[in-house]
């Protein structure tokens, strides 16, 4: 089966407990790394962390939307699963109306917990308190915690000073956003991984007319791939105009 034959499965979510899912295409192989950015060291460390080879107790990733924080957190979970480790991925943006104590109960028995969208706990005393206690339970039981957010630990508006101090103890990395040249290369790399070649002029057209963050750009690429398969047409600029209305 070729990559393109199998690509239809790439967007199918993998079900996890608590109704949370991982995207199959959120992998380290799909994460674009420019030779000039500072993300390569982070990716290598996270791969070791995910498999359990690196015993670091807490890692904190932060970066602006589209920088790849969520992608890397889910990539870590994919590797952890293949390594036979127990884990849970929790995007707080999907759980703000839930009872935090109920959601976080028992997670300290897992090998790895990945908390995404931590900034959503700002101005929410319930979530801050529950996350503080989870942090302590994971530390006491020798488990690992990976945190993702749009802000650094110092930049978070947290009323619970104890939680802020715990997060400041973590190994902290900022993910650097891609330049336009990197986004162009990332689009073309992602298309090849999906089993087709995106011409440079088409990639340029998408980059300058679609939303600029990488998550939105990759969503456009997926939409185009699905449409081209259904229509049995190559992805050209006229086809992009027709499908994306840009």
Structural overview:
It comes from Microbulbifer celer. InterPro entries: Chromosome_initiator_DnaA-like, DnaA_dom, Hda, Hda_lid, P-loop_NTPase. This is DnaA regulatory inactivator Hda. Belongs to the DnaA family. The chain is about 45% helix and about 15% strand. By secondary structure, it is α/β, with parallel strands linked by helices. The protein folds into two domains: about 5-175, P-loop containing nucleotide triphosphate hydrolases (Rossmann fold, 3-Layer(aba) Sandwich); about 180-245, Helicase, Ruva Protein, domain 3 (Orthogonal Bundle), CATH 1.10.8.60. A hairpin with a 5-residue loop joins strand 1 (about 15) and strand 2. Helix 2 (about 40-50) runs parallel beside helix 3 (about 70-80). The chain starts with a helix and ends with a helix. The relative contact order is 0.14. Mean pLDDT is about 90; it is low at about 1-15.
């Amino acid at each position: 089966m070729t990559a393109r034959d199998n690509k239809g499965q790439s967007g199918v979510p993998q079900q996890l407990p608590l109704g949370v899912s991982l995207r199959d295409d959120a992998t380290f192989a799909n994460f674009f790394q420019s030779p000039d950015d500072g993300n390569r060291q982070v990716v290598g460390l996270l791969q070791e962390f995910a498999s359990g080879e690196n015993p670091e107790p807490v890692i904190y990733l932060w970066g602006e939307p589209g920088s790849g924080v969520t992608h890397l957190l889910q990539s870590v979970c994919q590797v952890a699963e293949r390594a036979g480790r127990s884990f849970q991925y929790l995007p707080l943006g999907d759980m703000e109306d839930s009872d935090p104590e109920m959601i976080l109960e028992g997670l300290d028995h897992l090998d790895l917990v990945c908390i995404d969208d931590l900034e959503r706990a700002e101005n929410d005393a319930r979530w801050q308190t529950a996350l503080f206690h989870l942090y302590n339970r994971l530390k006491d039981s020798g488990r690992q915690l990976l945190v993702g957010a749009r802000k650094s630990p110092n930049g978070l508006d947290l009323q619970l000073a104890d939680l802020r101090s715990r997060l400041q103890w973590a190994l902290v990395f900022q993910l650097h956003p891609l330049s336009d040249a990197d986004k162009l290369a990332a689009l073309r790399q992602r298309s090849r991984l999906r089993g087709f070649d995106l011409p440079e002029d088409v990639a340029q057209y998408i980059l300058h007319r679609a939303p600029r963050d990488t998550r939105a750009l990759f969503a456009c690429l997926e939409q185009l791939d699905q449409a081209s398969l259904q229509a049995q047409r190559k992805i050209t600029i006229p086809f992009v105009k027709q499908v994306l209305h840009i």
